[in-house]
Amino acid sequence: MSASNPSAPSIPGTPPATPRRRVRWPKVREAVLVFAALTVVSAILFVPIYLILLISVRPPERAFVYPPDLWFTMSTLANYPRALFDYIPFGLFLRNTMIIAVLVIIGDLLSCSLVAYGFARFRFPGRDILFMVLLSTLMLPFIVRLVPLFIFFQRIDWINTFYPLVAPAFFGTPLFIFLMRQFLSTSPAYLADAARIDGANELGIWWRIMLPLSKPVLFAVAIFAFQSTWNDFLAPLVFLQREEVKTVILGLYGLMGMFVEWNLVMAGVVVAVLPMVILFFIFQRYFVQGISLGGGIKG
């Protein structure tokens, strides 16, 4: 009689035992290596930020010491009010930059979403050719268009006003049109068809249906527009020459030209970068969704 290994009797009403999963060590090693590599790269990228913070809270005689002191010894916050209020009118520059940034965001969201809706939903001869021409303008650097733009804005007396920095946004930005067009192409067409059956026109469909569906990409475009406006140096340097219309970046540039107290310059840099960091962390979820351009509607 052959020996057998009878299985243990199962208790009625109990679920069957699930097999124990084996740990896949190659996958674990790969994850550990990726995490270690990302940690090293993040640490390297954080070094300049750490040095900026460190120098911004040091007195002038300890801004650059040898041997290097990489700890927050003899720190002071007096550099911030000195840099922002004693030497430059930071409040005025901040107000100017915020006005320009808000107007640019409004112009980009309205114009780019409207043009992108036309490219994504309308069928007309030459649509793809026009879209390729639009994308080809991304290859033109701003410095190529700077001289004719300056001549044009000077002829219409727009120099030393906010108009040269704001008006182009209301005519569309190619990169933002591309992002919105890719996003709107994935949105379901039956929603627009149902709205047309109910009597809605194309502007109503764009305003009431497409824009609410495009919140992730709209947030991404708004962040990009705010970042490009906040960090823009060349255009304000050329078009804004009077003190009362200058931006934050021009204020920092003027601060560097006054003296070489780098602790004050770094304090101004920290304050100038802080709004971008706060904005990104607040809208990080929408920013990632908009850039990924994943399907228009889920569920």
| Proportion of strand residues | under 5%
Known CATH architecture of the largest domain: Orthogonal Bundle
| Structural class designation | mainly alpha
Count of helix runs:
14
H/E series, N to C? HHHHHHHHHHHHHH
- By CATH, the superfamily of the largest domain comes out as MetI-like
* Radius of gyration, CA atoms, in whole angstroms: 28 Å
Name the helicity range.
55-70%
Intertermini distance: 60 Å
What do the pLDDT scores average to? 85
Q: How would a textbook summarize the main sheet?
A: none
**Unreliably modeled segments:** 294-299
Report what the structure shows.
The protein is an all-alpha fold. It has two domains: 25-79, no CATH class; 81-292, Orthogonal Bundle (MetI-like fold), CATH 1.10.3720.10. It has helices spanning 25-56, 79-86, 90-121, 127-136, 142-155, 163-166, 174-185, 189-197, 202-213, 215-231, 234-239, 248-258, 262-282, 284-292. Helix 8 packs antiparallel against helix 9 and helix 10 (215-231) packs across helix 14. The longest helix is centred in the first third of the chain and has 32 residues, at 25-56. The chain is globular, with a radius of gyration of 28 Å. 24% of the residues are buried. The model is unreliable at 294-299 (pLDDT under 50).
